[in-house]
Amino acid sequence: MNTAMQKPEAVQTLDYPIPSGVYAERVVSVKHYTDRLFSFRITRPRSFRFRSGEFVMIGLPNAEKPVFRAYSIASPNWDEEVEFFSIKVPDGPLTQHLQKIQPGDTVLMRQKSTGTLVNDALTPGKRLYMISTGTGIAPFASLVRDPETYDKFDQLILTHTCRDKAELKYGEELIAATREDPLIGELTGGRLHHFTSTTREESPRMGRITALIENGELFSALGTAPFDPAQDRVMICGSMSMLKDVKTLVEEVGLKEGSNAEPADFVVERAFVG
Ligand code: A2P
């Protein structure tokens, strides 16, 4: 995305000193999807390096000791900006303020990123299933735009389940833009699959992802066999109870949990708060 035209150049004067080990970056753009969800992009410091799928702590310069929360980085590691996809919690210590940011405002970002939803934490396989609910799609928005993920897996399957159709829009726009991207687009042909469902609003496919795995609808829609430890790898990100339930399902069929230190068949992001 060429956002050069939108970049405000004015430097904001901050009321509080920037804590050490923290970048102070400018908001480039903000997009509101629903009264619960929005995405935003900030400038990327030259020295900031991360692996696609990792998270970082972000905050606002609105206090001596600002509140920081873990946010998955939604942009890939080659992007010149950093993108996030966030929930809006009316009285959330950070998101009640963060949801009001405008282009030109300052967002604080700790310099060190980390996380388990990275290609390095999985052993090689044929298919990568990325299972998400709500804003849990964010780390996968990074991974589906990273050529390394296509080097490692033949097929990428991104599942996204939300309460209603409007909450699926970020993912729909992401997949459409990725397929047309001059850099990544040609890697996606016949390899990047998007499987969506809603749980609280009538839509072409309804149901929790756990139910759609158990009744086989996920696999029949894709034309694949059920999870197979010999060739399938799984990443899971979203609400706490979903993480637990999907972990149980994949463990039942023999997939083993991996980590950066010991790569294996599936990984879960526990730091994520959706
Ligand atoms: P449901 O509407 O049945 O609660 P949220 O917006 O609350 O984070 O939820 C995002 C999506 O995750 C919703 O569609 C929700 O379904 C679904 N979900 C919540 N808990 C689970 C779970 N334990 N297993 C599978 N899906 C879940």
Task: Give short descriptive properties of this protein.
5-stranded parallel β-sheet, Rossmann fold, Elongation Factor Tu (Ef-tu), domain 3, alpha/beta, binds adenosine-2'-5'-diphosphate, 274 residues, 26% strand, disordered N terminus, 2 domains, 6-stranded antiparallel β-sheet
What would you say this structure looks like, in words?
The chain is an alpha/beta fold and 274 residues long. The chain folds into two domains: 19-110, Translation factors (Elongation Factor Tu (Ef-tu), domain 3), CATH 2.40.30; 119-268, 3-Layer(aba) Sandwich (Rossmann fold). The chain is built from eight helices and eleven strands. The strands form two sheets. The protein has a six-stranded antiparallel sheet with strand order 4-3-6-1-2-5, with no helix packed on it. The chain has a five-stranded parallel sheet with strand order 9-8-7-10-11, with helices on both faces. Strand 1 and strand 2 (37-43) form a beta hairpin. The radius of gyration is 18 Å and the shape is globular. The two termini are 26 Å apart. The structure holds adenosine-2'-5'-diphosphate. The site of adenosine-2'-5'-diphosphate has 16 residues, from strand 8, helix 6 and helix 8.
